[in-house]
């Protein structure tokens, strides 16, 4: 199949969830979530703690089993589209004392090209180094990953995702616990990706930066409360509904 | 028949029961602290402690062995911490390196020094010596009231009874802070509970259990009794006091039925020999756990029928 | 004795002895390298349970082979029995930790002790029925090279070599699954099969190590070289290679020692040599070693 042609006039849907439900141990975590993420958009998934944000992402990518519902990416069942998707998990999910250098982790993003035995060609090596450079981490290539700060670790994870050259980048709380410089570097890279027609979906916590960073929002509290362009969807009433009507001050009225 | 029971079956049965109770008690706390491995480690570390103490003092008396074992337990705690700090490895791996190394040292010390005279050879360390703990004076019911005959009881019996009493007393004294520190260490510290001291105390009590049980029943039964009865009891109840009581019941039942099965089951099947009592008790405790895991009313965590597998974070 | 030791170290103590110490070296190489991944994937404890769970199978295989009129001590038969009972132990362990609320460490300890206890019962049966010559079976507890057959040594050496080849071809998915299983799945790696392969390779190391190191201490040959090697390098491939070399040296020298001193139990000797390598690494390794940290601590005030 030919890769998606960016000149296609119809707005392609990068990711479409319909009726996605996830239960964990008999307790519903996500209920009948339906949402569409147009190609070239950048969406924040927001909602209170326990709203099922991470679970929604993981279920959409088939990383946790869904109870019901369907997920399609680029018009295909998501399992078949996985090679076009890059996922950036939460930083805390891995052992940072693992014996690996920064460049080793980024090269893990090239596994679909190398497979278990294939050689890392000079082209692929250059791709990994460029991804690292895009995040301002070129000088750290030979460092042990445990020697990095939290923000640097997050940049390495994003560099690994860049090396995958996916059309859809899914991030789970990319700004949690990172310094301001890293946040700026990451957002610049993500905006660059969007400018090149890639799709970005991120779980996000800081409501004050939503309008500046994202062009679309999905408000989640087990159910989808609202989804749409930030300008029309990110409003006090809707957000208050998602957050269980707690008082919010950071949101435009 | 009665004389045979009194002389050959009753003493091993009582000793096995006491050893099982001594181990099951601290096992309850190890289970809740996810430190089941500590019991495994301690039961291996006891061997080099006993052997080294014998080689240094020339004595194989109870206090010397206990001292050696506690010293080895302390040494192993230091080694584990040092390895963790140097390698930043998984604590379980650090523990594995420590107890295999110390156990290997114990075996080599035994073989090289010819200390097998301690009536503690490698075989006893592995299988225990329950069958050898007999009461030759147990010739009839009258012997139970005869001080001279009672003096001939295996020395392990009063020693284990004393260890069990000490263990029960220690747990009664530290029970409340121990439970709080096990549930929430940070909270316990905020109440002024010395959590590090409590942890060290638990390690010490585990070592006491391991060394008291070790000489009589061997390392295998020690591990089994530290882990299986509390684990089975955990699947039967959500109440901690009930869990402790049930674990003691299961430990005693394993010991009594296991000793009887080892001594009487093969002859009943027409075989002219008996099998290892320690092994059969350990097997039985595993079967009890299997029953609890299949039918226990509290075998699942609430709301998580699939158990404690890593689930999605929400 | 020194002469025998030197001969054994340099493969000059006769063809059989050379095969035995070559077998031990290849076993150490495979166990060290596989163990680097086992340890990183946090399966050290499970491999200990697996090792202890082989005992009932060894005993039953012995009984079965002796009852059929064969040599109860035939290594391939004993290893087949060991593999079956370890697999049963693993299945029960999986059921206990996934279907009940018990934490994995307790489930592992329970399987370890119950299977080992059952194995001891079966060993006492064997001692009593007086069929065949059971003397060799205790060697499976703490390892012994005494009376090892040429074919056994060859089996261990070949098994170790095959295992190394398999490990080399799976190193990338193994490393990615150990570092970040979620990302590995996103990259199209079947992490369940990868974990299963790692478990099977670990089991193979345990089985090959039963005769030489013994089931009580074989776990140390998986983890101690791995922790020592970790101190020298930050790269998984190099860590696995170094762990293999440390395991090979410990296996070879330990086997040579026990050939020279027949009373010396082989397993403890090998394990203590591996630990000696760990201590050396903890002192000397650049970066993480004690000396280099002391030097840095000294250098700092002057800078």
Automatic annotation (TrEMBL), chain A:
Pfam families: ABC_tran (PF00005)
Keyword Nucleus: no
Record-linked InterPro entries: AAA+_ATPase, ABC_transporter-like_ATP-bd, ABC_transporter-like_CS, Metal_Ion_Import_ABC, P-loop_NTPase
Superkingdom classification of source: Bacteria
Keyword Disulfide bond belongs to the record: no
GO molecular function: ATP binding; ATP hydrolysis activity
GO biological process terms, semicolon-separated: zinc ion transport
Record key words, sorted: ATP-binding, Ion transport, Nucleotide-binding, Transport, Zinc, Zinc transport
All copies of domain ABC transporter, residue ranges: 15-247
Family label: Belongs to the ABC transporter superfamily.
Protein's recorded name: Metal ABC transporter ATP-binding protein
Organism: Paragemmobacter kunshanensis
From TrEMBL, chain B:
GO biological processes: response to zinc ion; transmembrane transport
Major subcellular site: membrane
Keyword Isomerase recorded: no
Matches recorded under PANTHER family: ABC-TRANSPORTER METAL-BINDING PROTEIN, METAL TRANSPORT SYSTEM MEMBRANE PROTEIN CT_070-RELATED
Keyword Transmembrane: yes
Domain of life: Bacteria
Family per record: Belongs to the ABC-3 integral membrane protein family.
Protein name per its UniProtKB record: Metal ABC transporter permease
Keywords: Cell membrane, Membrane, Transmembrane, Transmembrane helix, Transport
Bilayer-crossing regions: 6-25, 37-56, 62-80, 92-110, 157-175, 187-207, 213-232, 244-265, 271-295
GO CC annotation: ATP-binding cassette (ABC) transporter complex
Membrane topology classification: Multi-pass membrane protein
Subcellular location: Cell membrane
InterPro entries given in the database record: ABC_BtuC-like (IPR037294), ABC_TroCD (IPR001626)
From TrEMBL, chain C:
Keywords noted in UniProt: Cell membrane, Membrane, Transmembrane, Transmembrane helix, Transport
Cellular localisation: Cell membrane
Segments traversing the membrane: 15-37, 49-68, 74-96, 108-131, 151-170, 215-232, 239-261, 267-286
Pfam families referenced in this protein's UniProt entry, alphabetically: ABC-3 (PF00950)
Keyword Cell membrane applies: yes
Membrane topology classification: Multi-pass membrane protein
UniProt GO BP: response to zinc ion; transmembrane transport
Name of the protein this chain belongs to: Metal ABC transporter permease
InterPro entries reported for this sequence: ABC_BtuC-like (IPR037294), ABC_TroCD (IPR001626)
Family: Belongs to the ABC-3 integral membrane protein family.
Originating organism: Paragemmobacter kunshanensis
A GO CC term assigned to this protein in UniProt: ATP-binding cassette (ABC) transporter complex
């Amino acid at each position: 199949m030919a890769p998606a042609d960016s000149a296609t006039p119809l707005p392609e849907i990068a990711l479409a969830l319909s009726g996605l439900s996830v239960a964990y141990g008999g307790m519903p975590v996500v209920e009948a979530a339906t949402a569409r993420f147009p190609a070239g958009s950048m969406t924040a998934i927001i909602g209170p703690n326990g709203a099922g944000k991470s679970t929604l992402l993981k279920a959409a990518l088939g990383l946790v089993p869904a109870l019901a519902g369907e997920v399609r990416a680029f018009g295909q069942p998501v399992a078949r589209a996985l090679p076009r998707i890059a996922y950036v998990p939460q930083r805390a999910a891995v052992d940072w004392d693992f014996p690996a250098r920064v460049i080793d982790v980024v090269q893990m993003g090239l596994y679909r090209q190398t497979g278990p035995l294939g050689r890392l060609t000079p082209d692929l090596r250059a791709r990994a180094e460029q991804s690292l450079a895009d995040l301002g981490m070129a000088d750290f290539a030979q460092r042990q990953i445990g020697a990095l700060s939290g923000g640097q670790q997050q940049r390495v994870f994003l560099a690994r995702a860049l090396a995958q050259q996916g059309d859809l980048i899914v991030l789970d709380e990319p700004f949690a616990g990172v310094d301001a410089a890293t946040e700026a570097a990451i957002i610049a890279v993500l905006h660059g990706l969007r400018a090149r027609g890639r799709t970005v979906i991120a779980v996000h916590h800081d409501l004050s930066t939503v309008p500046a960073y994202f062009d679309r929002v999905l408000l989640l509290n087990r159910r989808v409360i609202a989804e749409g362009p930030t300008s029309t969807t990110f409003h006090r009433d809707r957000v208050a509904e998602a957050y269980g009507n707690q008082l919010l001050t950071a949101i435009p009225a | 028949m009665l004389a045979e029971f009194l002389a050959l079956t009753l003493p091993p049965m009582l000793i096995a029961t006491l050893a099982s109770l001594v181990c099951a008690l601290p096992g309850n706390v190890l289970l809740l602290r996810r430190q089941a491995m500590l019991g495994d480690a301690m039961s291996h570390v006891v061997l080099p402690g006993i052997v080294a103490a014998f080689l240094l003092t020339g004595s194989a008396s109870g206090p010397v062995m206990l001292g050696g074992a506690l010293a080895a337990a302390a040494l192993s705690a230091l080694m584990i911490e040092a390895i963790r700090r140097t390698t930043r490895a998984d604590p379980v791996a650090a523990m594995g390196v420590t107890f295999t190394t110390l156990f290997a040292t114990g075996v080599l010390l035994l073989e090289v020094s010819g200390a097998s005279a301690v009536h503690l050879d490698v075989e006893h360390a592995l299988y225990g010596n329950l069958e050898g703990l007999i009461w030759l004076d147990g010739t009839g019911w009258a012997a139970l009231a005869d001080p001279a005959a009672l003096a001939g009881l295996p020395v392990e019996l009063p020693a284990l009874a004393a260890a069990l009493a000490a263990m029960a007393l220690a747990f009664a004294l530290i029970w409340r802070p121990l439970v709080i520190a096990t549930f929430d260490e940070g909270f316990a510290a905020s109440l002024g509970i010395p959590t590090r001291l409590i942890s060290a105390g638990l390690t010490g009590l585990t070592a006491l259990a391991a060394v008291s049980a070790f000489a009589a029943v061997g390392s295998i039964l020690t591990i089994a009794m530290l882990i299986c009865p509390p684990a089975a009891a955990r699947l039967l109840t959500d109440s901690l006091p009930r869990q402790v009581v049930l674990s003691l019941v299961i430990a005693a039942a394993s010991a009594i039925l296991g000793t009887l099965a080892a001594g009487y089951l093969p002859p009943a099947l027409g075989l002219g020999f008996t099998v290892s009592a320690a092994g059969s008790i350990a097997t039985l405790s595993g079967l009890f756990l299997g029953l609890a895991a299949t039918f226990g009313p509290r075998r699942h965590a609430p709301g998580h029928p699939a158990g404690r597998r890593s689930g999605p974070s929400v | 004795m020194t002469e025998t030791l030197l001969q054994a170290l340099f493969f000059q103590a006769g063809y059989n002895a050379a095969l035995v110490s070559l077998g031990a070296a290849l076993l150490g190489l495979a166990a060290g390298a596989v163990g680097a991944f086992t340890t990183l994937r946090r399966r050290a404890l499970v491999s200990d349970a697996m090792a202890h769970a082989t005992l009932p199978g060894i005993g039953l295989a012995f009984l079965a082979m002796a009852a059929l009129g064969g040599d109860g001590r035939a290594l391939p038969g004993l290893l087949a029995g060991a593999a079956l009972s370890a697999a049963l132990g693993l299945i029960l362990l999986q059921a206990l930790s996934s279907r009940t609320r018990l934490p994995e460490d307790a489930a592992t300890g329970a399987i370890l002790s119950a299977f080992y206890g059952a194995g001891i019962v079966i060993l006492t049966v064997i001692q009593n029925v007086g069929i065949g010559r059971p003397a060799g079976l205790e060697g499976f507890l703490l390892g012994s090279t005494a009376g090892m057959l040429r074919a056994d040594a060859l089996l261990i050496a070949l098994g170790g070599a095959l295992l190394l080849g398999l490990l080399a071809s799976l190193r990338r998915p193994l490393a990615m699954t150990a570092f970040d299983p979620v990302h590995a799945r996103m990259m199209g790696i079947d992490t369940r099969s990868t974990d299963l392969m790692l478990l099977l390779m670990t089991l193979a190391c345990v089985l090959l190590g039963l005769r030489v190191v013994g089931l009580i201490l074989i776990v140390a040959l998986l983890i101690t070289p791995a922790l020592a090697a970790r101190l020298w390098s930050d790269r998984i491939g190099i860590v696995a290679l170094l762990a293999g070399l440390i395991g090979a040296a410990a296996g070879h020298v330990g086997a040579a020692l026990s050939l020279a001193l027949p009373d010396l139990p082989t397993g403890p000797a090998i394990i203590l040599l591996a630990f000696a390598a760990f201590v050396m690494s903890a002192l000397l390794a650049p970066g993480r070693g004690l000396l280099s940290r002391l030097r840095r601590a000294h250098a700092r005030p002057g800078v």
